[in-house]
Amino acid sequence: MERLNEDGADRGFPTALAGGIGYFLLAYGTIRLTSDGHNVAAIWPPNALLLAIILPLRRRRWPMNFAAAFIGSILANCLTFGTLIAPVLYGTINLSEVALAGLILQRLRAQGNPLEDVPSIARFALFACLAPAITAAGGAATAHLVFGQPYWDSYRIWYLADALGLLIFTPLFLGILSGDMGRWLREMEGRGRIELFAVFGIVIACGLFVFKSAGYPMLFVMSAPIQLATFRLGQFGTKISLIIVAVIGMVCTMAGDGPIAALIPDRGDQALFVQFYLGMMLLSTLPVAAELNARRSLVRRLAESEASLRLLASESADALIRLSDRGRCIQSSGAITMLLGIETKALMGQALADLVDPRDAERLRQAFAEALLEPGTVTYAEFRPRDRDEDWLECTLRALVDNEGHSYGAIGAIRDITIRKEREVSLALAASTDSLTGALNHAAFMAQLDRTLAHLSSTHLAIIMIDIDHFKQVNDRYGHLAGDQVLIELHDRLRALVRDHDVIGRLGGDELAILLDGAAEELSISIAEAIRAIISEKPILLSTGGCELVISISCGVAQAYPGIGREELMRRADEALYRAKGDGRDRVAISAH
Length: 593
Description:
- The chain is α+β, with helices and mostly antiparallel strands and about 600 residues long.
- The chain folds into 4 domains: about 1-180, Arp2/3 complex 21 kDa subunit ARPC3 (Orthogonal Bundle); about 180-290, no CATH class; about 315-415, Beta-Lactamase; about 420-590, Alpha-Beta Plaits.
- The chain is about 60% helix and about 10% strand.
- It contains 21 helices and 12 strands.
- The strands form 3 sheets. The chain has a 5-stranded antiparallel sheet. A 5-stranded mixed sheet has the order 7-8-6-11-12, sandwiched between helices. A two-stranded antiparallel sheet has the order 9-10.
- A hairpin with a 6-residue loop joins strand 9 and strand 10.
- Helix 4 (about 85-105) packs antiparallel against helix 6 and helix 10 (about 225-255) packs antiparallel against helix 12 (about 265-315).
- The chain is elongated and about 100 Å long.
């Protein structure tokens, strides 16, 4: 099936043919089961099938599908009504209804999952039911003029039959055609499939009990198995259960069986009552299914987010901790043992301030207290681990806040800043720094790179080459003072974005480099992408002229490996950078392995 955003091979005719056959089978079966050959059917699922087929398609594909459905509709009506004029009129009216519903829903971009959330249900129900309200006038007029049926009774039954058909069957057909239902079934394990058959068996058994037992008016019983299907099987369980109830209820009642047929002698009133019953079942079930579906999606996204965070933490030299309102650790991940010298399990329930050098404990307690007192702010504390005077760590803290704005703990990130401390001393030497930006100059950066490569034992080392896009135009238009300010601002932003132990160097002109130590390839690429995106988001306010300047950067990323030389690593990063610039700038390119 060709969807709105796809330009795949033309499969229009097979889709239309299958849709026409499906429309015929549904129409013929529905008329035979719920109509006496003169009045309109009590429920009408064929339009739901056609609507589900055309909603994802471009409108230029609609005519072929409508033509196939029209032929299927005429054949089904001719076989059951025995005349030609009524099938032609009924077919024209039904296709007009589907076209109107499809145009409205496509315009509102509502061709997705109608049960995604409660607003989706409301939008789909409102506009899917609007089309039958208009076309029911033509259907009732045909039933009145051709078969002598009462106009308003026919209008009422037509509208409810088509509206219920669209509401009940369209979500299921959309799920089947999109493949979502197939994925749902494939993802089920053996135990889940056993539960599926058991739940649907309960729904069928309860449906037969309720609609075949004339002496027991227990229509309320059906709400229990449908709710069971909703909670245990999700949105597709709800869709299929509602269809089971609709089919059993309509077939039994129209055949004269069950409590409705026993209590209401008139066939039209029987159909009306069943339609009303199904409508109430829809209203009470679909919002619950939508809300459960939204919550399941939220839980899945949270689980994926947590998994991503744990992956990043496991590949990082940093550690994440969660503290209670008393400053005791209740959750942790990352390099806890390496940083604090304590196992993760032993850390649980411990006060973080008790695990640091006593000289720095008060500084850490103060930062934690400030974070709780001022939610939304970030506090910092530098400290030395207990019995390790030569190492320095930094803890970044931010309060956790409940719905009422009260702090109930804090989340913190601990990182090793020993290298930063040592670098503070070395950067005091002018010979190793760039006088404009404060970054390492070319010689110092290369020396640092050589030292790092000499001790490299894994692939957790990367270099990012950065070049300002169209930097010459900045100098030509605003002057060299403005260009210097751009370089300074770029370095300051890079320093704020990368980790403390990462090294930034100015290699010359507007070319900068970042040495990422302890970063796997995925993390290196993520950092480069984040840097590129954030740099272009905030304009630079030039002191000369007071105007704002938006800059962008191109980045080339090269991952190191044990034994690689400085020249080879720099060459790979340079090639990646020039590929990024050649591909249009403002992008990240990765060196080929």
